[in-house]
Structure formats: C-alpha cells, structure tokens
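User: quick one - fold this with adenosine-5'-triphosphate bound?
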Amino acid sequence: MQLLQDILQNVSAVSTHGPLDVQVQSIAFDSRQVQEGVLFVAVRGVQADGHAFIQKAVEANAVAVVCEELPKELQPGITFVQVRDSGEALGRMASAFYGHPSTKLQLVGVTGTNGKTTSVTLLHKLFRELGYHVGLISTVQNQIDEEIIPATHTTPDAVKLNELLAQMVKAGCTHCFMEVSSHAMVQQRVAGITFAGGVFTNITHDHLDYHGSFEDYIKAKKSFFDMLPKTAFALVNADDKRGPVMVQNTKASAHFYALRKAEEFKARIIDNTIQGLHLEVDGQEIWCKLIGAFNAYNLLGAYGVAVLLGEDPMEALTVLSSLNSAAGRFDYIVSESQITGIVDYAHTPDALENVLNTIQEIRNPNQKVITLVGCGGNRDATKRPIMADIACRLSDRVILTSDNPRFEEPQAILDDMQKGVKPLDFKKTLSVLDRKEAIKTACMLAEPDDIILIAGKGHETYQEIKGVKYDFDDKKVLREMFVQLGK
Ligand SMILES: CC(=O)N[C@H]1[C@@H](OP(=O)(O)OP(=O)(O)OC[C@H]2O[C@@H](n3ccc(=O)[nH]c3=O)[C@H](O)[C@@H]2O)O[C@H](CO)[C@@H](O)[C@@H]1O[C@H](C)C(=O)N[C@@H](C)C(=O)N[C@H](CCC(=O)O)C(=O)O
Ligand SMILES: Nc1ncnc2c1ncn2[C@@H]1O[C@H](COP(=O)(O)OP(=O)(O)OP(=O)(O)O)[C@@H](O)[C@H]1O
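Assistant: Sure. Structure tokens for the protein plus adenosine-5'-triphosphate:
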C-alpha cells in the first residue's frame, strides 16, 4: 500500500482533481482487474483504448484514475490525474510503487531480433556460477536464482516487471538479466526502469506486422539505447550493419564486440563441430559446448557484459566455456540409429538460415538434412514464403507443417509458405498439416546418421490452435517417434 502522491513522485501531471493523500493498494491498467483501492491507468492499446474503460474502473471502486484525457464527468470521491503519456506514467508509477527495484540491482537488458534468450540465459548461468544471487527475465521463463516463475511475455508489462524486480531484490539478488523486446519498447513496459547496461545482438526482418516498417522496428530497438543513463554501458554487435546506429545518441558509454571486425571484445572461430565451438576470445583459446557460429556472438556478448560489470575476464571465460545453451535452442537428441534430431526455436528467416547454415557446416557429406518448418498465424505473413525457400535451399528434404496457427486457417498458412517453394524443389517438399504426423514423417524419411531439424517452437510445450493451447512438445514427440519407429 502506498500514498498516491508518493507513487506520482516522478510523474509530471497536466492536472490533478481530488486528494493525493489517498492509499493505493495496487496499480491496474485493465479495468477487469480493478477493485476497491486500485489505481486504474487508462492506456491506449493496439485493439482498444483504456480510456473507454474508465467508467468500468469507477464502477469497480477504483480509488484513482490516471489518464491522458479526462472523462466529461469527474466522479466525486475518486482522484483523477491527467498526464501527457499514460504508458510512460504507468512505468514510472509502477517503479515508485515497488520502491524503484531496478535501482537496487545491476540490471542488464538485451535487445535484438535473435539471441536475446540465449544471451540472458548464459548470463544468468554465468553469474550464478560466479556466486551471485541472480534474476532472469526471458521468453522461456523468469527465474530468481533456481526458482522458476512462468513467463507470459518476453518482457513483462510495467506492473509485473517491477513486481518481479522487487521480488528479486527481496530475495537478495544483486544482478538481473532481462530480454527487452521491441514490443516492450513501443508499449513503454520499461519506462522508469534504471538499467546498468544494454546489449544489442542484431536486427533482421521480423515483427513487421506490429511495427509496420523495418525503419520503425529499428527505431523501437534504438529507443532502448536512447533511454540508458550516463552510468550505463551500451554493448553493441559491431558486425551488424545497424550496430553503430543503436548507440548514436545514447548517454551510456558505448562498447563494441565483433567476430569480423577488430573491436574491444573480439573472437575468432577456430572450429565449429557438433561437439561444440573452438574459439579464440580476446587472445584466449576456449572449447565450449555451444554449437553454431551465432553462438560465438552470444558467448562473446555475455563475456563483454561480465567484463563491463567488473568480473575477472579469465574466470568469466572459463565458466562460459562450460555452459550449455538454453532449452529449445539447438537442443538435440541422438537416436539408436544415430539420427540427430535438433529442436530449435528458429522462427524468423534469419534464425532459420543461421541454424541450417550451422547444420551444413557441421554435417558430413553423407548425412541428409530433413527440415520440418511452419509459420505462426496472426503474425508477419511476409516471412512465410521466405522461410519455405530457405528450408528448401539448405535441406535435402523439407516438410512444411503447422506452427501455432492461432486464429488463422492452418492450411492458408501452408499455402502462403508453398508460394516460396521453387519448381525445382517441389520434389523434395511435402506438406503435412498435423505437426505430430509431420514429425513422424520426418523420422520415417530419415536414415541412420541423417539430421532432422524441427524448427520454430523450441522450448514451447503447447500448440495454439483457434485460441486453445494443446499440449505439444517437439522434443518429446521426436523422442517418442524414434522409439515407435524403431529408429
Ligand atoms: C500486440 C501486443 O503486444 N499487445 C499487448 C498489449 O495489449 P493491447 O495493446 O492489445 O491491449 P488492448 O486489448 O488494445 O487494450 C488496451 C488497453 O485497454 C485495457 N482494457 C481492455 C479491455 C477491457 O475490458 N478493459 C481494459 O481496461 C487493456 O488492459 C489495455 O491497457 O498490452 C498488453 C499488456 O501489456 C499485452 O499483454 C499485450 O500482449 C499481447 C498478449 C501479445 O501477445 N504480445 C506479444 C506480441 C508481445 O508483446 N511479444 C513480445 C515479444 C516479441 C518477440 O520478440 O517475439 C513480448 O515482449 O512478449
Ligand atoms: N546471435 C544470434 N544471431 C543470429 N541468430 C541467432 C543468434 N542467437 C540465436 N540465434 C538463432 O535464433 C534462435 C532464437 O534464439 P533466442 O531464443 O536466443 O533469440 P531471441 O532473441 O530470444 O528470440 P525470441 O524473442 O524470438 O525468443 C536460435 O534458436 C538460433 O537459431
């Protein structure tokens, strides 16, 4: 419980109506969660405008309302606060309500199209091994040390985020590593948060359904670096064309890492096999369990963060070299007959191309590559034919199937993907709508030593069809099929 006036300490109000010394029990931006004593914040969303629900919040006995536009009638007994930007105000109020937890941690945010989950997971494991109490906020799960807290978003909303950070502070965490999505930046989920550092991994074609254009997507990512304070570091992948743009106006101190260019943090791939990566990092040779050139970037970024946070470089490298990747990220099992089944979350053209290039690099010429891929419904449709084409270009056999069709017709998504299959590739491509059947087909087609890639869903344990989440785990189904088919 907090006084409204204390919650408003960092918010510049346009006007206030009613007492500010009222007790607020919690903050909600969804009228359906309002009850007596709750402060309701009206936020403009994608589908609806929270201002339309002020009346509902009032009827549910909200103690106060924060909004950009005041309703025509102000009910007596309820305090109304008008602000210029209620999304930003929500972030600042949530931070104040929970006692500004982000200022009590070394909080590092990672943004980029790919590599966020892997990077924050590596950092969480690294700092745990270094002996710290550490928080993790990621797409797969949130964590306080080893305690798992399920995640609903890559970056939680401002209220949940501050609540989670406060829990971490209470549990004695000194560090937290979190993913910062471009959606979160546009929706100001991290407004009012103090970061000790920010990392940019890369940016490629994704989420254009939400951002509208690539330029706007870049702007969303860049806005994260614009908000970093002078005390923070901004660590950027210099091999990405947009890397330098990210830190153009940042107040934070800019640092760079790269494999191709000579930068402050640099690495070189000596060898890349199914057993892992052999690297030279800042002049030190290491062998690590992570597979694929892209993981050299993730490892180097994590190493850079550790050094910038004051850790001993050698110690950090030694620990990093012993770590496995995150669940569903190049996660593999080998069957009795030596078929390698790889489950990977790659659901963007770039990520799929990366995984397949990696497989091509590490396979021997006799191993066939069978790729199973689908695309999500109600998300960027332009990537569907592109992903089918990438799968065909880099595999011997391709099975197009369903991912999470959500509210779209699964067959319509497959039809979009098929448009990317070139006539020469028709023979190697099959469409199997049912994902379980598709995995079975991949196993049937595989001969000893072949490689199956199951792309798109990684760690997910469900398949979302017409609003219903059905239990589905790629790795589990794959294992079952290997056994069932005696492979
Ligand atoms: C497209 C999108 O990002 N939507 C997010 C957004 O919801 P919205 O803007 O659609 O909300 P809305 O339905 O238009 O409602 C507007 C406002 O009216 C309020 N309202 C609405 C109805 C009502 O009866 N009463 C009421 O008060 C709502 O609470 C909201 O404040 O704000 C909500 C609260 O923060 C989010 O939960 C919601 O995430 C949806 C569920 C989602 O799926 N988001 C995904 C796309 C997302 O954010 N993904 C990124 C990762 C992307 C990636 O890298 O892969 C993430 O960070 O997770
Ligand atoms: N640094 C990287 N560069 C390019 N591709 C990468 C990189 N790291 C991981 N990938 C690929 O992207 C996939 C997703 O990785 P990861 O989950 O770490 O990214 P993410 O940014 O968290 O994506 P999402 O928000 O969609 O979960 C991996 O399985 C891998 O195929």
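One thing worth noting: DSSP finds 16 helices and 26 strands in the chain.
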